[in-house]
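pasting for the record
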Amino acid sequence: MKKEGVILGIDPGTQAMGYGIIRVKGSRMEPVGMGVIKMVSITDPYRRMSHILEKMYELLDTHRPDFMAIEAPFYSKNVQSMLKLGRAQGVAIAAALSRNVPVCEYAPRKVKMAVTGRGAASKEQVAVMVKKILNITEAPLSKDATDALAVAVCHAHQPSLFGNTSSKATSWEAFVSKHPGRVKQKTQAKE
């Protein structure tokens, strides 16, 4: 199957949400658009979610992506911040799913590894590599936008993208058929 399509990358946030759109053609990736949905001036947290939803619909309807890749929230000791970030992420995911756009989620370390080769890379290193990979000459770009582009690039590097599947078990049924003895042993132990 030919590797071709549009990927919308999202770096979720409650004050600023980055987005980046890339087009994949074979091994080539090119930027289509990028930016930041700003919500600092919106004080009502529920109005922020509504604003994210409206802007997500605009992005989805304008660019018609084949996939949406979103960065997973990272662990934080501030529970309230995590809840707010999770809400923003959930609204973005729901918008994509309502437009029948498949969604994949990536941990920040996986995104950094895919773009820079280091899971502990800084935001600055990610931005430099994204600009190099996508041949972007504009300077400077918002870190939220480059983070979103990095998520899209990470998704483009996945072996299962566009129907190319790896030899790894991708479902419970595939695992059971590959390892019937292991599953049977665990079932017997429960009886």
